[in-house]
């Protein structure tokens, strides 16, 4: 996802500051500026540190200044917003010059790691893919980069969105003592979905509320055009990353009615706008290997792949079942472990946590964010009257002010209190529907 999916695809680009777009060119990394990049050698498999290794690229927003605090920007396997040269723009737009800003170009984009997943016939060996790209590897990559930038006992600041936010919280469970503050936006946390009984993909049951005929129209379209099923479901799922919350239902209805009416031109325009073909191409490309592993880890712990009624359409879950079928088969056969996540260490952490999420986020249920925030002793949760992309807060600059003041000065600071006061127009109230 930013990327392919989890709503997530959390997927496809559940992403980052560039939340709408899958990688600019995920297969063609830019030539690095040596004054703003570093390389860090890490094992292909951290569980076997004497095994083969590969070089990770660390992109810097500006030449590194040891006197400044360091923000490590964390992208997930389905997110491609960290590439050589991208941190300079993110530093200017989000962080300003008070910080070192460093982003790890993910191992999923790095050929040495992709090649380590190949079998003897050159095809993907999905057992190897799991070993190379499961979350434990990303967590240790983050820690090795931390040590390379600030030293063995140095502390950092963390920043992640959606799938990247989930990795931030996974890292905190193991290495939280090395993190002074962490900002996460729309953090996926599938174990809390299962614990709270909140399923992924509530899209289907929400349709009849305002558009009672859309369900029957969509079922009819899929029955008449089974060959178009995957492409249409990906298009419907991608709406989450482009359409504001207040017009989402209308956009779904327009798309379904266009396909039902045989309006191929309108359907083609929607696929182009929502990057359907780009998403499908990514899933089939080498960069898609890591995506599939991380999407399994994002969805399976919530029970997302348990049987559904045949007359229930779940665009996110069904597309991931189809595209990630080899990995899902390995989990069901017991050949690879069920993904897991233990939140218990959060209760003992001294790290300050800021979570910002949307009340109407189609990808990340706001109730899981409430539970996640409450797991940390030192936290602030800002529940916005918006969806996954928080477009209003981004465009107004309120989210940027909140992030900067929190990371620089902390939860108890007057500057953070001022940023919260300025952003209060975006805060969701329980008196609203």
In brief:
42% of the residues lie in helices and 12% in strands.
How would you describe this protein?
- This protein is of the alpha/beta class.
- The chain has one domain: Alpha/Beta hydrolase fold, catalytic domain (Rossmann fold), CATH 3.40.50.1820.
- The protein has helices at 86-95, 111-115, 126-133, 135-150, 163-175, 190-196, 203-206, 212-224, 229-238, 248-260, 264-273, 276-284, 287-299, 315-323, 325-332, 366-374, 391-396, 398-409, 414-422; strands at 37-43, 53-60, 70-74, 100-104, 156-161, 179-185, 352-358, 379-384.
- It has an eight-stranded mixed sheet, sandwiched between helices.
- Helix 4 crosses helix 5 (163-175).
- The radius of gyration is 21 Å and the shape is globular.
- It starts with 36 loop residues before the first strand and ends in an 11-residue tail after the last helix.
- Mean pLDDT is 87; it is low at 1-31.
Index terms:
Rossmann fold, 42% helix, globular, 433 residues, disordered N terminus, alpha/beta
């Amino acid at each position: 996802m930013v990327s392919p999916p989890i709503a997530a695809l959390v997927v496809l680009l559940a992403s980052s500051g560039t939340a709408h777009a899958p990688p600019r060119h995920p297969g063609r990394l830019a030539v690095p500026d040596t004054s703003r990049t570093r390389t860090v050698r890490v094992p292909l498999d951290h569980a076997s540190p004497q095994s083969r290794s590969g070089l990770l690229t660390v992109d810097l927003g500006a030449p590194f200044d040891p006197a400044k605090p360091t923000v490590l920007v964390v992208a997930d396997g389905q997110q491609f917003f960290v590439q050589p040269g991208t941190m300079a723009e993110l530093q200017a737009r989000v962080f300003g010059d008070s910080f070192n800003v460093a982003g790890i170009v993910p191992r999923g984009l790095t050929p040495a790691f992709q090649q380590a997943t190949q079998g003897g016939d050159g095809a993907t060996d999905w057992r190897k893919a799991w070993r190379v790209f499961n979350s434990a590897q990303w967590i240790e990559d983050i820690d090795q980069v931390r040590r390379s930038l600030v030293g063995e006992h140095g502390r950092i600041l963390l920043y992640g969105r959606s799938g990247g936010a989930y990795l931030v919280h996974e890292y905190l469970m193991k290495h939280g003592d090395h993190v002074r503050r962490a900002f996460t936006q729309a953090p996926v946390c599938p174990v809390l979905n299962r614990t709270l009984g909140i399923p992924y993909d509530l899209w289907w049951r929400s349709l009849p509320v305002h558009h009672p005929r859309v369900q029957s129209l969509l079922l009819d379209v899929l029955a008449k055009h089974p060959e178009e099923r995957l492409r249409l479901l990906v298009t419907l799922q991608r709406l989450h990353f482009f359409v504001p919350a207040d017009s989402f239902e209308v956009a779904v209805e327009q798309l379904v009615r266009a396909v039902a009416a045989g309006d191929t031109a309108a359907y083609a325009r929607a696929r182009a706008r929502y990057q359907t073909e780009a998403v499908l191409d990514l899933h089939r490309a080498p960069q898609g290997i890591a995506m599939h592993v991380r999407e399994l880890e994002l969805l399976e712990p919530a029970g997302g792949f348990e049987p559904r009624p045949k007359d229930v359409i779940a665009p996110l879950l069904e597309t991931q079942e189809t595209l990630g079928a080899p990995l899902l088969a390995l989990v069901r056969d017991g050949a690879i472990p069920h993904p897991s996540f233990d939140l218990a260490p959060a209760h003992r952490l001294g790290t300050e946590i800021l979570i910002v999420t949307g009340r109407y986020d189609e990808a990340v249920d706001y109730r899981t964010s409430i539970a996640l925030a409450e797991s940390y002793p030192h936290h602030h949760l800002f529940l916005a009257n918006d969806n996954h992309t928080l477009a209003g807060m981004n465009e107004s600059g309120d989210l940027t002010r909140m992030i900067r003041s929190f990371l620089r000065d902390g939860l108890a600071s007057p500057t953070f209190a001022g940023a919260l006061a300025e952003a209060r127009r975006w805060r969701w109230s329980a008196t609203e529907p």
